[in-house]
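Our collaborator T.R. sent over the components below with a one-line note: 'Predict the complex.' Nothing else. No constraints on interfaces, no templates requested, no preferences about which chain binds where. So this is a plain run: every listed entity goes in together, and whatever single assembly comes back becomes the starting point for the next discussion.
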Amino acid sequence: MKSYTETLYDSYGQEFAVDKVYFENKTDHQHLIIFENAKFGRVMALDGIIQTTEADEFIYHEMLTHVPLMAHGNVKRVLIIGGGDGGMLREVCKHSSVEHITQVEIDDQVVDMCKEYLPNHSGGAYEDPRVHIVIDDGANFVRECPEKYSEKFDVIISDSTDPIGPGDVLFTSDFYENCKKCLAENGILVTQNGVAYMQLDEVITTAKRLQPYFSDQSFYSAAVPTYIGGIMTFAWASDNSALRTVTTEIITQCFEAANIKTRYYNPAIHVASFALPQYILDALATKA
Amino acid sequence: MNRITVESTDKAEFYQQMVSQYGSPLLILDCDQLVKQFHALSGALPNIKLYYAIKALPHPAAIQTLDALGAGFDIATTGEIELLRTQGARARQTIHTHPIKRDDDIRNALRFGCTTFVIDNIWELEKFVDYRHRVGLLVRVSFPNPDTPIDLSRKFGCREDEASILIHKAQSLGLHVKGLSFHAGSQCPDSANHVHAIKQCTKIINDVFKNSGKLLSVLDIGGGFPVEYMKKTMDIESFCLPIREALKQLPEHIQIIAEPGRYLSAPAMKSVSSVMGKAKRGDTCWYYLDDGIYGSYSGQLFDHATYPLTIFSDIKETEQAVLAGPTCDSIDVISEQINIPPLSIGDIVVGHQMGAYTSATSTHFNLFDKAKIVVINQPVKSLENILQLNSKT
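Returned assembly:
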């Protein structure tokens, strides 16, 4: 029986039975694999770290999409950094009020490969006429964006890989500063920020790096089974602190008006996800 | 001086056949011998996980053969990681043992999936703070060995009394030290230094637990297992017996690992070179081979090895001779002041025990091509094996 062992941590890890390998590439200084697992469906892993699975991706993608979009209440333009598997795009496209979506992916082959091997992630979203795909380094795009394009974004979603590896530039102060410049008034930046219990340093570092550019920054969370070790945190940054504390009633109104079908997200989860465990609050309090 | 065996010309048939098929010079890698070496060492060190030090012979066939036997791999650089990645070796079965690394080296190893690293000083320890939740560290302790050709405790390794300080410092930085490592030397004449090092490491492990409650769980006993070049060496069973005895003193929970390189690979490769020219200079006959000190015989310089050679002749008379390499440099001499039967242009010279630190350190000086490596007896990969390799990480 074949298996795939995640190698994120030295002393702890998860293992998947591999029923069938659909795709594997060990060249280009990285190891990418997509395989079938009985519990999680198609699983994609890069450099020994699980990136996404068909079975639990909805939690991650719904939370990075609907929380900022519902909190904002009037999102017209969305920027997705990364997200080559198309899952984020699929969720953003559910919002009929959104008029424009730019997705910046560093490698067009990732998009093609995911369309072929993880078709359920994008679910046809790449064909949506509101979608504009840019092949560029996300950090470079946000650096050049304010000069190149006059229109700003209401929400920026950073759907990056692990900070050790190709996604490292998406965790830098420069990146956060440039994202700020690309955001419209009341704009919100959200980013995947790792599993806090396992990587508390990442939460502290991100908080420190966001602070100079946003008057309100915090985290919200969800547990994604294959991002093991407890809750995953999502960084939240905006200059409008009220957006982080929108009431359940108002979110419910927005959610009903949007008429979106979800499997994890709902208004109660939305509000509750901003509650952070004490160990994270303590870490954030001592970060300076 | 190299030991030179003269065999009858009919014994050269296999090598001549290889040369006519693949050209000259050649290195012939025999995977069967690799398997035998692995089993011999595993037998002498039962329950000790072997991590092949791929620096000795970083060849895909060697990696595949040892991977199939369940060996792990000892890696030191990003280049070695790339080799393992392309060969489908499992990252969980690797340890990164270079005591000095750049940040990129650490990141590349982590991306590959290797999470065990070696440190021997405070500056190296501090490099891991950013990765502290991901890694497990081994502290390398120095046990100098003046009896070996290469003393691996000169350039690397902390003093015994520094080990517990580093472990304590690591704890305060939130880093996990999981054990100790040492290198008793390369090509050790006996295992006395291994035994000494194990004894001292046992003491460190016990003291650290007694003083701070910190549990260490791994002891890496390095390499140093000898192969026979010119001098008679101890057989592996006799060499390892005192090691096994010494290891009994360790707390029962300690996992022992080792990093053999030379012992596994050296006997698995032979060099085949050809006389490409000859000259009579005084009383001495000079034979210029198509491989030399800048090529496969680089180990005679870098590795302080002297390889046993075989020539093939049916002539009884001998004369004083020199076997030189092909390059323009005078240092490029493999063996001199030897007495051998006369050789003709095109005759073959075979070098033995040439799998470790030979092709690995050969150069392109004079833009001579390096010897081509020909693999024999490679285990045939069944379809199932290929699939398994593909799914490993």
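Summary for T.R.: The radius of gyration of chain A is 18 Å.
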